[in-house]
Amino acid sequence: MIVAIDGPSGTGKSSTSRAVAAKLGLSYLDTGAQYRAVTWWMLRNGVDVNDPLAVADCAGKPVIVSGTDPAAPAISVDGEDVTGPIRTQEVTAAVSAVSAVPEVRTRMVEVQRAAAAAAGAGIVVEGRDIGTTVFPRATVKIFLTASAEARAARRSGELGGTQSVAVTQAALAKRDAADSGRTTSPLAKADDAIEVDTTDLTLEQVVERVVNLVEEKR
Ligand code: C5P
């Protein structure tokens, strides 16, 4: 059982995916955290993240280990816990460039497929290309969307109001454009994915809808 949950930033992917996994007794994998962890490693090691060749050269070096417990999804790089550090604005600003490098994606997709193979009852996997590329035969594919305003308001709230909604909205638009416009497995809705617009829904409503869709397929 693989539940693929894709969509742009700020649509509630992580909260929804974790709650759905917890409710259904499934494992959980945050692939965005993995791309952030690779980016964190590149920055830590002085690799120029805007040089695709330099990033490609190092793509196989960081050893990423993702926890799959939806209650506490920790992630480490080379044995160092980076669950907190991967959320800095420095990493957020650099992640789209790093994740556009094909060698990075090839490596991460291997890690993601291995995690799913090791998950007992099944797994909820969230990202941008899960339904299109990583698990094209996923049991259920969900594509979450929300208005640009709603997404920016949520993300600004998560940052504790340290960044205005307008600045957040501009940063999200830039990251979405990069993620959707890249050549290798861009952010896209799979043809057979079910789109859920979360703009006017509470988290509980979104979770209920996704759980029902999964139950129908079980
Ligand atoms: O989900 P999150 O916002 O943490 O993802 C961070 C970045 O990782 C995205 O903006 C995107 O560049 C990249 N990503 C990706 N493919 C995925 C998941 C995330 O390219 N499956």
Summary?
It comes from Actinacidiphila acididurans. The chain has 9 helices and 8 strands.
Q: Which properties best describe this structure?
A:
single chain; 218 residues; alpha/beta; 5-stranded parallel sheet; 3-stranded antiparallel sheet; 8 strands; binds cytidine-5'-monophosphate
Q: Can you put this structure into words, describing what you see?
A:
The chain contains 9 helices and 8 strands. It is globular and about 45 Å long. The protein has 218 residues and is of the alpha/beta class. It has helices spanning 13-24, 31-44, 52-58, 89-99, 102-118, 130-134, 148-158, 165-181, 203-217, and strands at 2-6, 27-30, 64-66, 75-77, 80-81, 123-127, 140-145, 194-197.
Which helices and strands appear, and what pairs or packs with what?
Blueprint: E1 2-6, H1 13-24, E2 27-30, H2 31-44, H3 52-58, E3 64-66, E4 75-77, E5 80-81, H4 89-99, H5 102-118, E6 123-127, H6 130-134, E7 140-145, H7 148-158, H8 165-181, E8 194-197, H9 203-217
Parallel strand pairs: 1-6, 1-7, 2-6, 7-8
Antiparallel strand pairs: 3-4, 4-5
The structure holds cytidine-5'-monophosphate.
